[in-house]
Amino acid sequence: MKPSIPAILTRSLKTESPPDSKGAVGEVLSKALGGEGLSVEDGCVLLEAEPHELPAVFGAAWKVRRKAKGRKMTYSRKVFIPLTRLCRNACAYCGFRRPPSPRSRLFLKPEEVLKIAAAGRNAGCTEALFTLGEKPEEKYPEAEKALSRMGYSSTLDYLADLCQAVHEKTGLLPHSNPGVLSLKEMAALREVNVSMGLMLENISPRLCQPGGPHEFSPGKHPHLRLATLEHAGKLRVAFTTGLLFGIGEKPRELVESLSVISKLNREYGHVQEVILQPFAAKPRTPMGDHPEPEGLETLRVLAVSRLVLGGEMNLQVPPNLAASVASALPLAGANDWGGVSPVTLDHVNPEKAWPSIPKLRRITEGCGLELRQRLPVYPEYVVDKPEFIPEALKPTVLGLVDGEGYVRREKEAG
To answer: Is the pLDDT of residue 409 over 80?
Structure first.
């Protein structure tokens, strides 16, 4: 019988000293607790640990997290702006993408975007999260024509102008997730985004083969996504990336994906955050009946990721996608709740409501931690790496934060 999550929490997650473990798992945990980097093989040992060994794994992740991050647990207050649902990719699990239809609007209009941003500003938000399909004009003539009517040759050009308008007219700081980018494309968007993001998801090309979740998604080939991640490093973009797990990956593929992220960050110092996103089945998609990861499996992936990536990396599991174990996420290695909106839905997962900020505060304090609001760029970049922040956005950034790089506390109420 598998141990229950409450039993594991009681036995390990709130203890300062992880339970002892012997054998291969114990050897790997000793390395992690001693500050040694873990190999792919080490990560696989932990990811495949037996149920009775999990308390030691979770306890070690908690200890590493506390040593590096102290008592702080962060979040970003945001608005979600779904600029377009058109996308050249057709991932088997995606419920966000919509093909063109005579009754649908292909792109949000500038006035609609600014209305959403203004509502966020009035609710104390600091982040404007632009989420959109990847380069839809490459697949759909309708998208190309709609952009042309607005005076644009590409979705990315339209996005750049709207990022600038949102910042200038509302003071919100843009964070864009536009898909894979060339170096030139990212350089242009860098000037109007305080941070950017692209989920690596997984480095396995196997997932792009016939029958795989990325078979019909040209932008999901690992070499393109890794190239985009490297472009961000070269351009000094504070970058968010992460994994989508539960889509058919093998344990080694998951650990190898973590290892690649770690390697790139050691080279460029630009990965500000790693998101660990459990698969969520969407009705009327090819993977609508695919099983979702259990709560315990989500905690296991989180804890192993903490130990593989080390204590300094910022880690989050979206709490609306792991509601059954949300109260355990900080204790299993997370130090951030991600972006949470008091105004808009999670348009990618509209059926999964974000927890309220007061609820996140109660959970955080129940773990013996302190909730702090951050900007879409993490405090360490504000304080220690100002070269990552575009010059045009620096006055806004510095006007919002305290000496530690967190949003001033009066912005955190509610």
So the answer is: no
SS3 assignment, position 391: helix
Roughly what angle, to the nearest 10 degrees, separates helices 295-309 and 40-47?
Answer: 160
Average pLDDT, the chain: 93
Q: Strand pairing partners for 343?
A: none
Domain spanning 72-412, CATH class: alpha beta
Integer Cα distance of 335 and 33 in angstroms: 18
Helix spans in 51-154 (H): 54-69, 110-122, 141-149
| Residues 342, 123 contacting (CB under 8 angstroms) | yes
- φ and ψ at residue 337, rounded to 5 degrees: -95, -10
Q: Tokens 């910022």 label which residue?
A: 314
Structural domain spans, the chain: 72-412
Enter the DSSP assignment of 410. Answer: G
Place of tokens 């699990």: 93
Q: Judging by beta carbons within 10 Å of its beta carbon (0-12, 13-18, 19+), is residue 291 exposed, middle or buried?
A: exposed
In this structure, the number of other CB atoms found within 10 A of the CB of residue 307 comes to 27
The pLDDT tens digits for 319-359 are 999 999 999 999 999 999 999 999 988 888 888 888 999 99
CA distance 245 to 154: 31
Output the six-digit token pair for 129. 């999260």
What is the DSSP track for 195-245? EEE---B---GGGGSTTSTTTT-GGG-HHHHHHHHHHHHHTT--EEEEEEE
Dist CA 17 CA 319 (whole Å)? 26
Tell me how far apart the alpha carbons of residues 42 and 38 are, in angstroms, rounded to a whole number.
Answer: 6
Q: How far is it, in rounded angstroms, from Cα 395 to Cα 391?
A: 8
* The amino acid at 282: K
Distance CA 315, CA 336 (A): 6
